[in-house]
């Protein structure tokens, strides 16, 4: 039975740009590299970027559809200690946010940006509950 995800792999049409984004802008530490593949450390799990051509050969071209316009986009949600501080730090590094920090009705402070492939990231933390 599947009990946890050990890695998230993002397919990239512009592999070098995507790797540079996660390594140089987001600041993730490279764990492993191979031709068209880079894995980054993220706690107990990995975030990896794979060139979409390599993914097509590994899985199948029919499933990956490398020539399809647009991309396979997903939303990745990550907890941070302070959404506003992380937002400001990433913005200072040139990350363009699609939504600035907002407090949701359920008490979560969220902000959203995209990577070079259009994948959406949510950074967030829960505000202390008022008692």
Describe it.
- The structure is a single chain.
- This protein is α/β, with parallel strands linked by helices and 131 residues long.
- The chain has two domains: 1-70, 2,3-Dihydroxybiphenyl 1,2-Dioxygenase, domain 1 (Roll), CATH 3.10.180.10; 73-131, Signal recognition particle alu RNA binding heterodimer, srp9/1 (2-Layer Sandwich), CATH 3.30.720.110.
- Helices cover 24% and strands 38% of the residues.
- The chain is built from four helices and eight strands.
- Strands 1-4-3-2 form a four-stranded mixed sheet. It has a four-stranded mixed sheet with strand order 5-8-7-6, covered by helices on one side.
- Strand 6 (97-103) and strand 7 form a beta hairpin.
- The longest helix has 11 residues, at 15-25.
- The radius of gyration is 16 Å and the shape is globular.
Chain-wise SSE layout:
Layout: E1 7-12, H1 15-25, E2 30-34, E3 37-42, E4 45-51, H2 52-58, H3 61-64, E5 75-79, H4 83-92, E6 97-103, E7 108-114, E8 120-126
Parallel strand pairs: 1-4, 5-8
Antiparallel strand pairs: 2-3, 3-4, 6-7, 7-8
In summary, what is this structure?
The protein folds into two domains: 1-70, 2,3-Dihydroxybiphenyl 1,2-Dioxygenase, domain 1 (Roll), CATH 3.10.180.10; 73-131, Signal recognition particle alu RNA binding heterodimer, srp9/1, CATH 3.30.720. Helices cover 24% and strands 38% of the residues. It has helices at 15-25, 52-58, 61-64, 83-92; strands at 7-12, 30-34, 37-42, 45-51, 75-79, 97-103, 108-114, 120-126.
């Amino acid at each position: 039975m599947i009990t946890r995800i050990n890695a998230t792999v993002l397919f990239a049409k512009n592999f070098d740009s995507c790797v540079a984004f996660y390594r140089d802008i987001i600041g993730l530490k490279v764990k492993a590299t191979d031709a068209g593949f880079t894995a980054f450390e993220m706690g107990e799990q990995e975030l990896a970027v794979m060139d979409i051509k390599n993914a097509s050969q590994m899985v199948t071209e029919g499933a990956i559809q490398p020539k399809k316009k647009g991309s396979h986009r997903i939303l990745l949600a990550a907890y941070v200690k302070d959404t506003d501080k992380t937002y400001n730090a990433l913005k200072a590094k040139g990350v363009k946010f699609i939504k600035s920090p907002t407090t949701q009705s359920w008490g979560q402070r969220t902000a959203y940006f995209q990577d070079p492939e259009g994948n959406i990231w949510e950074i967030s933390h829960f505000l202390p509950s008022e008692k």
